[in-house]
Design goal:
Blueprint: H1 13-46, H2 50-71, H3 75-97, H4 104-116, H5 122-143, H6 152-192, H7 202-219, E1 223-230, H8 233-258, E2 265-270, E3 273-278, H9 283-299, E4 302-304, E5 307-309, E6 313-320, H10 326-342, E7 348-350
Parallel strand pairs: 6-7
Antiparallel strand pairs: 1-3, 1-6, 2-3, 4-5
Helix pairs in contact: 1-2, 1-3, 1-6, 2-3, 3-4, 4-5, 4-6
Length: 358
């Protein structure tokens, strides 16, 4: 489950598309801090601190203003103001109530968040963090010898500030973790998928072939390859343009995928060539699958620019045998494909590659 502050604070789609990560990180922090300030207002008021009550009201309104800046896409300005706001709030309250009130936790959380902030200017974040650390140490030595009575008010503030700072760090860390997982999944999908058809690309198919070849050798399974090529595809591009050709490829990919089993693996091998791996299937049954696909394509009407386009395919079919090298199987199935094309296209060419034993 992802952490989505944009569900609480709706924002324009344009801003989310440009700087989604920055927007959500800042809004997470703004939400937690604003709630924290709101909770302290009645506490200060009923504890007899009118000055702190007014100060917290002003700070709460100020954070609402920061939220508005962030919502309008002014992320850098929001970040600068947030850093100043947290710093001045923590320093003023520390000087007013002492070290034991726990406002130093705000500075500790801010230093961590500065380093996590999704900015390309890491050096600036490091420099600002170093300066904050220096001021943190200065404040520590200034306030070290000041004896602050540990009243219930101070104890409560210490605990409250610790909880708010931990929540801010936890929420932001949760977001970064979720976002990182999403980016890794997106990268994995992009690196493994053909962007036009949504099928596996050649890189991913090579990985699948390697894994299944190991299974063939280990368990003596029968796996087969089907290489499909759309006949005279250049005519489709010439007649309907490349956009029309792309549309045919998308519809073709969907049709072929529907004609295969869930266990079968299909990839766009290159151009108008598609490679299918049929696990636990010998060459005889793979040829039946190829013929089924050939008939499906031949009888299907592809919709292109309000017109119907008809195409055919030629298939080569071979079997992955025990101790058989992937490269040999790919060469064989490619050879069979072109044999089928030389014999008139719109057909299935089948041959089982003999097993090679060491």
């Amino acid at each position: 489950m992802s952490f989505r502050i944009d569900k609480i604070f709706p924002v324009s789609k344009n801003i989310l598309e440009k700087n989604q990560q920055t927007y959500l990180v800042l809004n997470t922090l703004i939400l937690i801090v604003t709630i924290g300030y709101l909770l302290t207002i009645p506490f200060y008021f009923f504890s007899g601190y009118p000055t702190l009550t007014i100060y917290s009201v002003v700070n709460t309104l100020f954070w609402v203003f920061i939220w508005g800046l962030n919502r309008n896409g002014k992320h850098l300005l929001s970040t600068i103001i947030i850093c100043i706001a947290i710093y001045q709030y923590a320093v003023i309250l520390m000087l007013h109530l002492g070290w034991d009130a726990g406002f130093q936790y705000h500075l500790m959380a801010e230093m961590t968040l500065l380093l996590l902030y999704p900015s390309k200017k890491l050096k600036i974040s490091i420099i600002v963090t170093a300066l904050m650390l220096l001021s943190f140490l200065i404040l520590y030595f200034l306030l070290l010898n000041i004896d602050t009575p540990k009243t219930p008010f101070i104890v409560f503030l210490h605990t409250f500030n610790a909880i708010i700072s931990i929540l801010a760090l936890a929420a932001t860390t949760l977001f970064f973790r979720t976002n990182t997982v999403q980016l890794i999944n997106k990268l994995h999908y992009t690196s493994s998928t053909d962007p036009l058809t949504g099928l596996f690309n050649r890189r991913r198919m090579n990985i699948e072939l390697t894994q299944h070849c190991k299974m063939v050798k280990r368990y003596d399974q029968s796996n087969s390859l089907i290489l499909l090529d759309i006949d005279y595809f250049k005519k489709i591009n010439d007649q309907y343009g490349h956009a029309g050709g792309d549309e045919v490829l998308k519809q073709f990919s969907k049709l072929i995928k529907e004609g295969l089993r869930d266990a079968d693996i299909i990839s766009r091998w290159g151009g108008e060539e598609f490679l299918v791996l049929t696990p636990s299937t010998d060459v005889k049954n793979a040829a039946i699958v190829a013929e089924k696909l050939r008939k499906m394509v031949e009888t299907n009407a592809f919709k292109v620019a309000g017109q119907e386009a008809h195409i055919t395919i030629t298939c080569g079919v071979t079997e992955l045998c025990t101790n058989h090298q992937i490269e040999d199987a790919l060469k064989q199935v490619d050879k069979l494909l072109y044999e089928g094309k030389n014999k008139g296209r719109n057909r299935v060419a089948v041959q089982k590659l003999e097993a090679k034993f060491d």
